[in-house]
Design brief:
The chain is built from ten helices and ten strands. It is an alpha/beta fold. Strands 1, 2, 3, 4, 5, 6, 7, 8, 9 and 10 form a ten-stranded mixed beta sheet that branches. Strand 2, helix 2 and strand 3 form a beta-alpha-beta unit. The longest helix is centred in the last third of the chain and has 21 residues. The protein is globular.
Length: 278
């Protein structure tokens, strides 16, 4: 029986990229896909493009919000809709690379304990130039690896290194973790990966899995340049994770020491000297 994958594509004012994103999903081999495009009341022609894609592909559904709800609510709507084996949130300006979902599905089948899998990605700028992003470094011949919760926190180094379009989640783990946190609009992804890692090991694929578009409109890129609010959001994400980790039997004291060591320099430079670092 083939693995089923639900892909939610939130779209706000990205009609010009939407067709590429959808085509990159429906062309995936070895898995059964469903796609939900959620138009968050875009002022451009997203509705026209989205409805056209839904008419063209039977596996594609299109929804449009009557008013703008924001990205967190839109993400959570997608999570509520998902029911397949695996789940992916794919921004409308990103795209999957050929074979990405099949590689993840194979790894997830071999390791039923994995909460999610991510991988290398191609970073693409506005000129179309692509640069390979290798969050775990060179593979040294390995095709994939598995990270424990501790290992995952260690490789993060206090930051979100997960290329979001490459991160495919086991839907049951996503439902258990719940939705994205409205209080963490700029560190929601980091918080989610940490919550999932607390519940089960994380897989990594050394193949390039997705294209992540880097341009002036990337909200996360703009926000990260503001040091104080960025550090505060990351600290809050890690605190949320530490609260949850204990419920899953993780060594919270060890994880806290690791986190605070990783964040120490950023905290000091941001002027947060009073944060407890036990």
């Amino acid at each position: 029986m083939r693995t089923s994958v639900d892909v939610v594509i939130p779209c706000y004012n990205y009609a010009r990229f939407l067709t590429e994103a959808v085509n990159s999903v429906v062309s995936q081999v070895g898995v059964d896909v469903r796609v939900l495009i959620i138009d968050d009341c875009s002022p451009d022609n997203t509705q026209e493009v989205g409805e056209g894609l839904a008419a063209l592909h039977p596996c594609v559904e299109f929804r449009r919000h009557a008013s703008n709800k924001g990205h967190i609510s839109t993400y959570n709507e997608g999570i509520e809709w998902a029911s397949s084996d695996l789940f992916l949130l794919l921004s409308a300006d990103d795209a999957l690379l050929p074979g990405a979902l099949q590689r993840v599905a194979r790894m997830m089948a071999d390791r039923p304990d994995l909460s999610f899998v991510f991988g290398n990605a191609m970073l693409q700028n506005d000129e179309g130039i692509r640069v390979l992003s290798e969050p775990l470094g060179k593979s040294r011949g390995a095709r994939e690896t598995v990270l424990s919760c501790r290992d995952f926190v260690e490789v993060l180094g206090g930051r979100n290194i997960v290329p979001t379009p490459s991160a495919v989640v086991r839907t049951s783990a996503q439902k258990q973790a719940g939705g994205y946190n409205h209080e963490l609009p700029h560190a929601g992804d980091l918080a989610m990966w940490l919550l999932l890692a607390a519940a089960g090991p994380v897989g990594f694929v050394y193949e390039p899995q997705a294209v992540y578009r880097v341009h002036a409109q990337n909200m996360s890129k703009t926000y990260a340049s503001a040091r104080l609010p960025d550090v505060k959001q990351r600290l809050a994400a890690f605190e949320l994770f530490l609260q949850e980790a204990g419920r899953h039997g993780q060594d919270v004291s060890l994880l806290r020491r690791m986190v605070m060591k990783d964040l120490a320099k950023d905290l000091d430079e941001a002027g947060l000297h009073g944060v407890q670092r036990r």
